[in-house]
Design goal:
With 437 residues, the chain is an all-alpha fold. The protein contains 18 helices and four strands. It has one domain.
């Protein structure tokens, strides 16, 4: 029983109405102990017998009728993606499990065998059926597989394929030469891209043009650069002549891209590229130009579109404008955090999870088959600096609208400032229309 009772004055002891409890339990063999019931005090009887006793207990004597004071909700500070992050590269590295850094050449080679087998099987099947109902399906599938071969060669270039530089070089040359990419020339420029990602002037791949360079472009170049689907065919031209505002070629050893000690590497890759081009010419005479067009040329350009589509969207098209840096504001970490992950649905496995791009950019040594796990482990550290990608259906059709919007709005950045964002030229498409007419 409770020994306290509530009243309008607070708490007070309940009068003693029971005898002292027995020290031993009652037994059915014992006679019941008699006790005398004591009446409670009159003041307590009055309250218990009163009709309004519940009111006396549960409510105060006076009620404050003034309206409650509404507290203002705390103001949430808007996240600034251009602000320096509160964590370091070492913090992210420490969050990634140690086994994610292990490179297994047998696993890597198994992906090569798988992809090459699929490429030859698709070509053999399409050539055997030789039906116009089959060719469009073949072109999409084979172009996607050519892109998958590029990604494996890309791993060789980063050294995430294996710890053996010779194995990486041999496999990288075979894969990239087969799709007309100069392996070492690309590898060196891609290294420059990773070392300077997010830097306006020093980045190498899909970096923004300054307003001055943008305004110096002739109308045909602007038409090509900002018109779909033409911009998705840019990669071979980039290999030959790089981006607007930069000089040199991936095939020439004396290009600004390369150091003197890299001359022999560039010559080797250019020789392999030339040998592949010669082989294609020979096959053209053996199989006929139409058959080569259907078997190789169309899938090659589908592969180019995949490459430009994926690499562009890893650095453009977020719903919030992301910063680009210059000068002291740039750092390897801040530049890497402006990259984006993308979900490609069923294509994720086919092109070796290249959509997990943030962790790949920060730590390109991690093999592709550990990137998903490494990304999940790093998310708690990255916080808002990691932008969760939109979920895809079986095919990443949702990214087409994002691509179109970015091409329409992301034209140049200011010539001044160390933290800059893309701006749009409102007169661009009027100029393009005049040019086209």
């Amino acid at each position: 029983m409770a020994n306290l009772v509530l009243s309008e004055c607070g708490k007070r002891p309940l009068p003693r109405i029971y005898t002292t409890p027995r020290s031993t339990p009652l037994s059915y063999n014992n006679k019941p102990t008699s006790f005398k019931f004591r009446q409670p005090p009159s003041s307590l009887r009055f309250r218990l017998n009163s009709r309004n006793w519940a009111l006396n207990v549960s409510t105060p004597l006076t009620v404050d009728s003034s309206p409650p004071i509404e507290e203002e909700p705390p103001k949430t500070q808007r996240f600034d993606p251009g602000a320096p992050p509160p964590f370091s590269l070492a913090d992210i590295r420490a969050a990634i499990p140690k086994h994610c850094w292990v490179k297994n050449p047998w696993i890597s080679m198994s992906y090569v065998v798988r992809d090459v087998a699929i490429v030859f099987a698709l070509a053999a099947g399409a050539a055997y059926l030789n039906s116009w109902l089959v060719w469009p399906l073949y072109w999409f599938a084979q172009g996607t597989m050519f892109w998958a071969l590029f990604v494996l060669g890309h791993d060789c270039g980063h050294g995430s394929f294996s710890n053996d530089p010779r194995l990486n070089s041999v496999v990288g040359h075979l894969l990239h030469s087969s799709i007309l990419v100069p392996y070492h020339g690309w590898r060196i420029s891609h290294r420059t891209h990773h070392q300077n990602h997010g830097h306006v002037e020093n980045d190498e791949s899909w970096h923004p043009m300054s307003e001055k360079i943008y305004k110096s472009l002739d109308k045909p170049t602007r038409f090509f650069r900002f018109t779909l689907p033409l911009v998705m065919l840019a990669y071979p031209f980039y290999l030959w002549a790089r981006s607007p505002g930069k000089k040199g070629s991936h095939y020439h050893p004396d290009s600004d891209l390369f150091l003197p000690k890299e001359r022999n590497d560039v010559l080797t890759s250019t020789a392999c590229w030339t040998a592949m081009a010669a082989l294609l010419v020979c096959l053209n005479f053996v199989m006929g130009p139409m058959q080569m067009l259907k078997l190789y040329v169309v899938p090659y350009w589908i592969n180019v579109m995949w490459l430009d589509f994926v690499t562009y969207l890893h650095h453009h098209g977020h719903e919030d404008k992301l910063p680009w840096y210059r000068g002291k504001e740039w750092s390897y970490l801040r530049g890497g955090l402006t990259t984006l992950d993308r979900d490609y649905g069923l294509i994720n496995n086919i092109h070796h999870d290249i959509g997990t791009h943030v962790i790949h950019h920060l730590f390109p040594q991690i093999p592709h088959y550990h990137l998903v796990e490494a990304t999940e482990a790093a998310k708690p550290v990255l916080g808002k600096y990691y932008r969760e990608p939109d979920k895809s259906g079986p095919l990443p059709l949702h990214l087409l609208g994002i691509l179109a919007k970015s091409i329409k709005e992301d034209h140049f950045v200011s010539d001044e400032g160390d933290v800059v964002y893309y701006e749009a030229d409102p007169n661009l498409y009027g100029q393009i229309k005049v040019t086209a007419e």
